[in-house]
Design a protein that fits this description.
The chain contains 4 helices and no strands. The N and C termini lie far apart (53 Å). It has 141 residues and is mostly helical.
């Protein structure tokens, strides 16, 4: 029976050393706040980059995220750095050559229509890729 409890529980923040001075505690807290600000800012930049990709590529959010991730992996540049380039691109018009080449390639792939799939035969020999006719109601006498 599945549990309703979350799989990953947040870890409690380790308590400060009892012997730590107020200045040490303040320094630790300041470092933690700085780290959290950096994380929030990085996430905002990534979200903005996804928006740029949606606009440029006329693609979905999921496709934009996949393009961003793939470009980052193929050019071996951290995702946030690629995102920063993309956020600045509409204003500057500049992208690193490697990022531009990978971006062009992945946006082209993302824009390709999905190959048509064959519908299962319905017993009447129909295997059309387009929408099949709805079944007709029985005739009334």
């Amino acid at each position: 029976m599945p549990s309703n409890e979350p799989r990953h529980r947040p870890q409690p923040r380790p308590e400060a050393d009892e012997n730590a001075s107020p200045a040490q505690v303040q320094a630790e807290l300041a470092a933690e706040v700085a780290h959290l600000r950096q994380v929030v800012h990085g996430r905002a930049v990534v979200d903005q980059a996804v928006g740029v990709l949606i606009m440029l590529g006329q693609i979905s959010v999921d496709e934009a995220w996949d393009v961003l991730r793939e470009v980052s992996m193929h050019v071996d540049v951290p995702l946030r750095e690629v995102a920063q380039h993309l956020v600045e691109f509409p204003r500057s018009g500049e992208l690193p050559d490697a990022v531009r080449a990978e971006l062009d390639r992945h946006l082209t792939e993302a824009r390709r229509p999905a190959p048509p799939h064959e519908e299962p035969r319905d017993g009447r020999g129909s295997a059309r890729g387009d929408q099949a006719e709805a079944p007709r109601p029985p005739r009334r006498k």
